[in-house]
Amino acid sequence: MTLTPLAAVLIFVGIPAAFILLMALIILAPGWTRVGSYRPGEPWPYEPLMISGSGTTDVDDSLAITPVAELGEDEPAELVFSVGVGGASARW
Amino acid sequence: MLAGEELSTAFSNSQLAEMEKALLNATRSTGAWFCAYVGSLPAGRQSAVALHDSLEFPNTSVLVAVDPEQRLVEVVTGSSMREALDDRACRLACLTMTSRFTVGDIAAGIRDGVVMLADHARPLPSLHTDLPD
Asked: Tens digits of per-residue pLDDT, B21-34?
């Protein structure tokens, strides 16, 4: 029994293509449907959080992270370094 | 997510639980207070240090502050922590975290960074010891 050209294309091209498409959907679909996924560099739309072993809380606006940003144009920015703190910084 | 809609929480419950567990384990194993901040750091390290100063016990606290929009991570250690957790270990932790942050996984990055900081930190000396009779 000989295959018609159409049958040959369907068997040898169509079946592998359908398999590849199915695998691609299985791998990529969770990313399309995930709610709230974040991409680096995009604006961060969420409230600031402070997380510790005892729980997670929204950060109080009175904490000292805003005074520098609220300084007027004529006022020099003050360094807010505490004496003796250590650590490190990094960017990505 | 609709266009222009702000989500109120950045992380799922399981992600928050993972981070809280890592922070709690780090606190218990080292005696230092570990916490993490995710949000805006308008003045960069100055903001992170100011946040650290606002903690209840800043001298024995370690703060991991992440600003995803500026792509900035800051580790701030209290003055009493500098011998127990040196700056070199903090830099290694930052490298570990940024490898996760690059792909957008903030929660896993914080968790891995806190675990590394706790592994490198030596426990703070305790002034109260119960000696066996």
From this structure: 999 999 998 888 99
Chain B positions touching A40 (Cβ under 8 A) are: 68, 71, 101-104
Q: How far apart, in whole angstroms, are the C-alpha atoms of residue A85 and residue B25? A: 23
Residue A55 with chain B: CB contacts under 8 Å: 20
Residue with tokens 């370094």: A81
- Which residue spans within B1-133 are E strands per DSSP? 33-38, 61-67, 72-77
Interface contact A53-B82, CB threshold 8 A: no
Distance between terminal CA atoms of chain A?
62
Task: Indicate yes or no: CB of B43 within 8 angstroms of CB of A77.
Answer: yes
Instruction: Tell me if the pTM is above 0.80.
Output: no
